[in-house]
Automatic annotation (TrEMBL):
Record-given protein name: Glutaredoxin-related protein 5, mitochondrial
Alphabetized Pfam families for the sequence: Glutaredoxin
Coiled-coil region: none
Source organism superkingdom: Eukaryota
Species name: Prunella himalayana
Gene name of the record: Glrx5
Length: 132
């Protein structure tokens, strides 16, 4: 990286606004969390993974902020939100665990996923219940 003429200010660092912007736009569903979906390292990150799983959202990008302190601070600066996890849908910051849980409970998450072309598995689960 030496000699490229730019430092972190030029968008090179993982915590720079440009780098974070690229990450939140790389996929329709992006989660910044502690740990990985297979092994969340905090209860809130685990809750976000479980909520997505309930809706059948398996295809999303997860970034472990514990692996990258620059990214951990960069994402907080980017969203102006002090905590991890953070969930982005279509490049837009949705919120953390509490907000995702609220959206799950009031049905908003099903609608937001629909906008991304993702059909919530809960819709199919409700249909199964109606058949019984």
């Amino acid at each position: 990286a030496a000699g490229d003429g730019g430092g972190a200010e030029a968008g090179g660092g993982s915590g720079s606004r440009e780098a974070v912007e690229r990450l939140v736009r790389e996929h329709p569903v992006v989660v910044f969390m502690k740990g990985s979906p297979a092994q969340p390292l905090c209860g809130f990150s685990n809750a976000v993974v479980q909520i997505l799983r309930l809706h059948g959202v398996e295809d999303y990008r997860a970034h472990d902020v514990l692996q990258d302190p620059d990214l951990r601070q960069g994402i907080k600066n980017y969203s102006n939100w002090p905590t991890i996890p953070q969930v982005y849908l279509n490049g837009e910051f949705v919120g953390g665990c509490d907000i995702l849980l609220q959206m799950h409970q009031n049905g908003d998450l099903v609608e937001e996923l629909k906008k991304l072309g993702i059909r919530s598995a809960l819709l199919d689960a409700e249909k199964d219940q109606e058949k019984k």
